[in-house]
Amino acid sequence: MSRLQAEHLYKVFGRRPDDAVEKLRHGTDREELRAKGTTAAVIDASFTVEPGQIFVVMGLSGSGKSTLLRMLNGLSEPTAGQVLFDGQDLTKLSARELREVRSKKISMVFQHFALFPHRSVLENAAYGLEVQGLPRAEREKRALEALELAGLKGWEKSWPDELSGGMQQRVGLARALATDADLLLMDESFSALDPLIRRDMQDQLLELQKRLKKTIVFITHDLNEAMRLGDQIAVMRDGRIVQIGTSEDILVTPANDYVAAFTQDVDRSRVLTAGAIMADPDKDFVMADAPATVTEDTPIIELFTPCSTSGVAVAVTGADGKLVGVVPRARLLAVLGEPAPSEPQDAVVPAQQAKDNGGKNVGKVSSGA
Ligand SMILES: Nc1ncnc2c1ncn2[C@@H]1O[C@H](COP(=O)(O)OP(=O)(O)O)[C@@H](O)[C@H]1O
Ligand SMILES: [Mg+2]
């Protein structure tokens, strides 16, 4: 069973939201509604997140990311559609049941994490457990563990203003981890941090995730962050999810010109891996002749040197050391060029949107990085 499932979610702000959903379903344009003072913040969003995955939602400011996230933990009621968490429909729970799920099973980490200034770091990290009504000793034990996981061992007795911005953000992470929640919802949690600290936090999250295997929905407007963190990435534009895929999918086969424009500044050689671009070996391919043998997760930047010195393809092996594919020089060069034009994916690109994006008048889009 998927941990989290969004089915045809809509969120409309303004007058007569149900009417607006009906209109959207019948092809009315978002702009047309906007002109009448109605905002379609999320339009027909469907996706599933498997246990242990980091699912990234990426899009420019105003594309509907935060609204979508707030529906995932029941903070905001969908205008239409369903949210299933461990198979349970959040939209059908009573207010009390919802509070229970929210305090025990789902944790949220925001961009600007508000710490209580007159409480120690330990008390701040334990806050979610206090809300749950746990006894003090148990709270402190779990908060201590969480602080250690977040790299803040030794800072328990400090006050928030003694911590740097990055460390304060870690307290936020520790608070979320301390509750033992299965699902972490992170809304631009690293966006306010300096680039170096931000990268550090990304590494730390990936490291933590290897051990804790939480299910994480991570929101960002930064494509590079999305590519580093996401097992799956949903790209949002004007309230709609226009593509869902791995970072490789999005780079190699963007669903439309919009996604292609978004990704054009990404350093493909560092994001794409040998496993993502490899081809089937020829029948007469001999592994011993290959200029190099690499694993599937090797970034392709490491294949340039071997490919430049030999006409034979680089060999790619699986975890068991057996040959799983090859990367010939021509393939390497091809994936670094412009992405091949692809058919929009009907499943996630509504017809109208696909048509809009098919034209040549899509401007260059900043990746926000
Ligand atoms: N409570 C609200 N009332 C009215 N409009 C809202 C509300 N929350 C968000 N919006 C609008 O919905 C759209 C999506 O906003 P948001 O989800 O915050 O986008 P993002 O997080 O991607 O920047 C925006 O046009 C925003 O102005
Ligand atoms: Mg937002």
UniProtKB/TrEMBL annotation:
<dbReference type="GO" id="GO:0006970">
    <property type="term" value="P:response to osmotic stress"/>
</dbReference>
<keyword id="KW-0547">Nucleotide-binding</keyword>
<dbReference type="InterPro" id="IPR003439">
    <property type="entry name" value="ABC_transporter-like_ATP-bd"/>
</dbReference>
<keyword id="KW-0129">CBS domain</keyword>
<dbReference type="GO" id="GO:0006865">
    <property type="term" value="P:amino acid transport"/>
</dbReference>
<dbReference type="InterPro" id="IPR046342">
    <property type="entry name" value="CBS_dom_sf"/>
</dbReference>
<keyword id="KW-0813">Transport</keyword>
<dbReference type="GO" id="GO:0016887">
    <property type="term" value="F:ATP hydrolysis activity"/>
</dbReference>
<dbReference type="Pfam" id="PF00005">
    <property type="entry name" value="ABC_tran"/>
</dbReference>
<feature type="domain" description="ABC transporter">
    <location>
        <begin position="4"/>
        <end position="263"/>
    </location>
</feature>
<feature type="region of interest" description="Disordered">
    <location>
        <begin position="339"/>
        <end position="369"/>
    </location>
</feature>
<dbReference type="GO" id="GO:0016020">
    <property type="term" value="C:membrane"/>
</dbReference>
<dbReference type="GO" id="GO:0031460">
    <property type="term" value="P:glycine betaine transport"/>
</dbReference>
<protein>
    <submittedName>
        <fullName>Putative Glycine betaine transport ATP-binding protein OpuAA</fullName>
    </submittedName>
</protein>
<keyword id="KW-0029">Amino-acid transport</keyword>
<dbReference type="GO" id="GO:0005524">
    <property type="term" value="F:ATP binding"/>
</dbReference>
<dbReference type="InterPro" id="IPR027417">
    <property type="entry name" value="P-loop_NTPase"/>
</dbReference>
<dbReference type="InterPro" id="IPR005892">
    <property type="entry name" value="Gly-betaine_transp_ATP-bd"/>
</dbReference>
<dbReference type="InterPro" id="IPR051921">
    <property type="entry name" value="ABC_osmolyte_uptake_ATP-bind"/>
</dbReference>
<dbReference type="InterPro" id="IPR017871">
    <property type="entry name" value="ABC_transporter-like_CS"/>
</dbReference>
<keyword id="KW-0067">ATP-binding</keyword>
<dbReference type="InterPro" id="IPR003593">
    <property type="entry name" value="AAA+_ATPase"/>
</dbReference>
<dbReference type="Pfam" id="PF00571">
    <property type="entry name" value="CBS"/>
</dbReference>
<comment type="similarity">
    <text>Belongs to the ABC transporter superfamily.</text>
</comment>
<dbReference type="InterPro" id="IPR000644">
    <property type="entry name" value="CBS_dom"/>
</dbReference>
